[in-house]
Design a protein that fits this description.
Order of helices and strands: HEEEHEHEHEHHHHHHEEHEHEHH
CATH class: Alpha Beta
Structural class: alpha/beta
CATH architecture: 3-Layer(aba) Sandwich
Strand order of the largest sheet: 1-2-4-3-5-6-9-10
Number of helices: 14
Distance between the termini: 56 Å
Strand content: 15-25%
CATH topology: Rossmann fold
Shape: globular
Number of domains: 1
Radius of gyration: 18 Å
Helix content: 40-55%
CATH superfamily: Alpha/Beta hydrolase fold, catalytic domain
Largest sheet: 8 strands, mixed
Number of strands: 10
Length: 314
């Protein structure tokens, strides 16, 4: 295939992805604007979507992907919501996470993104491993962060378990899995395994999200890049150093931190683990959402959006 044909193919895939993404956001009455940010160190071209106006809030996703934020942002008017495609996700370029201190690197990526956005200070909302990104930015660049919201379980403490799906990604079988064409059945299986079976059954998770998530796997290299990152931070059933936080590190984070955790989200650890995180944070609070899964807003949107809005406007 010639270089021109490769470029045309990549452009076509990107437009198919954008179309699935547009349908997802439009389902919630939103029409985000797209922007690309060029970072120098590490060198990367990152994509963000922006919705609304008001106090800026940076959203950092987990393995569900950036489109997972659409429903929550649709229930959070009054903010300038900035959705980052993490490096290697969606239409962002990849970075090499191997051989570097993970916590320092992700904080630098987010600091660079804020510089490119010309934002001195933001609130940060993380989900899953995005929780680690949010806390590392708060710890290493405290002047850039107002308040922090953590949604769902994440590898925050050293006793956090590595979920089975993440161990699978890191295995040789994961290398095969991320090259298989996406399909609705696999997306359904992942969501059920994340505690969202009831919301799939009752229609709380719309077809537009399923279609977008299939498009992630078919039209982008997101999952291949995610596997590369996972291989850099996971060793067997444990996380490598530089990812999780010691209690002393959590104790140094001075920003107010809200953690919203679903009681059906047990893959990383029980709710007691998150109580210990909240206790270690000087200004931490924990809210449990009964029956909610790994992305608690997928199951109890009004409850989670209400908690987030309350916290960010206090």
């Amino acid at each position: 295939m010639t270089s021109t044909a490769i470029e045309t193919s990549a452009s076509t895939r990107a437009e198919r992805y954008r179309e699935a993404e547009r349908r997802l956001w439009q389902h919630y009455g939103l029409d985000p604007t797209e922007r690309f940010l060029d970072l120098a160190a590490p060198a990367a071209r990152l994509r963000v979507l922006e919705v609304g106006s008001g106090d800026p809030v940076l959203f950092v996703h987990g393995t569900v992907g950036p489109g997972g934020w659409a429903s929550l942002i649709g229930s959070l008017p009054g903010f300038r919501s900035i959705v980052l495609d993490r490096p290697g996700w969606g239409l962002s370029s990849a970075v090499d996470f191997s051989g570097q201190d993970y916590g320092t690197l992700v904080a630098e990526i987010l600091r660079g993104a804020l510089d490119a956005l010309e934002l001195e200070r933001v609130h940060v909302v993380g989900g899953s491993i995005g929780n680690v990104w949010a806390l590392r930015l708060a710890a290493l660049h405290p002047s850039r962060v107002g308040r922090v919201v953590l949604l769902g379980a994440g590898p925050i403490r050293s006793d956090a378990r590595v979920p089975g799906i993440i161990r699978l990604l890191a295995s040789p079988a994961g290398a095969v899995m991320v090259r298989l064409p996406g399909n609705r059945s696999r997306v359904h299986s992942i969501l059920r395994g994340s505690g969202h079976g009831p919301s799939l059954a009752n229609g709380r998770i719309p077809d537009e999200f399923i279609d977008w998530r299939v498009s992630v796997e078919r039209e982008t290299d997101s999952m291949r890049h995610e596997r590369d990152m996972v291989c850099a931070i996971v060793k067997g059933k444990s996380y490598r150093p530089g990812l999780t936080f010691a209690d002393a590190e959590l104790g140094s984070i001075r920003q107010p931190v809200l953690h919203v955790h679903g009681t059906a989200d047990e893959a990383v650890g029980p709710a007691e683990s998150w109580a210990r995180v909240a206790d270690a944070l000087p200004h931490g609070e924990l809210r449990l959402v009964d029956g909610a899964g790994h992305m608690p807003w997928f199951d109890e949107l009004d409850t989670v959006a209400g908690e987030v809005k309350r916290f960010l406007t206090e």
